[in-house]
Known about the structure:
With 97 residues, the protein is mostly helical. It has helices spanning 7-31, 37-54, 65-88. The protein has one domain (7-88).
Amino acid sequence: xxxxxxxxxxxxxxxxxxxxxxxxxxxxxxxxxxxxxxxxxxxxxxxxxxxxxxxxxxxxxxxxxxxxxxxxxxxxxxxxxxxxxxxxxxxxxxxxx
Length: 97
């Protein structure tokens, strides 16, 4: 136990906080018309990890959340792959007209 919570909860909270903070950096980058590919990847990976670690918590009743988390996690994974391909191709730039 760390700070009165289980290790899994503590790890998920830390990952979530990193995701939130990197998301704020990405939003300000978008508002400033800048493509921050590294920060985008940190944001996407931490949100995927938050969803994945959520599956390790015990649940007692069948709800819609696991189904939604699987769909959202799959979508985020696809976005991560797309961003990586774009960065490798050298096209990760926002063009302004």
